Structure prediction request, 97 residues.
Amino acid sequence: MTGGMIAVIAGAVPGFLRDRAARPACVDADPDDFFPEPESVAAAAAVRVLYCQGCAVYGPCLDWALSQPVDKLHGLWAGTNQGMRRRLRHARTQGAP
Prediction:
C-alpha cells in the first residue's frame, strides 16, 4: 500500500488504513478526491457514494475522524467534511443517536 491516500498521509496513517485484511475502498484513490478546494458538502457526498458506501472500514474511519481535533484534520474522512464532523461530534456528546 504505497499509492493513493496512503502516500498523502504517510506520516499519520491510522491503523485501519494499514489493515491488509480489510482493504479500505479509498486506499488507491486519487487524493484530490478527498482534499477538495474548498472542502464542500457536494464533494463529501460524492466521496460517500464513490468510496465510502459499503467500505469495509467505514465505521473505524468515522470513529477515527471524530476522535481527531476538527481544526487539525483536513479533507474528507468517512465521507464527512470538517463541518459535518463537528456536528456529529456535538451530537455524540449531547447523547443523540
Observations:
- Residues 34 and 76 are 5 Å apart (CA to CA).
- The mean pLDDT is 81.
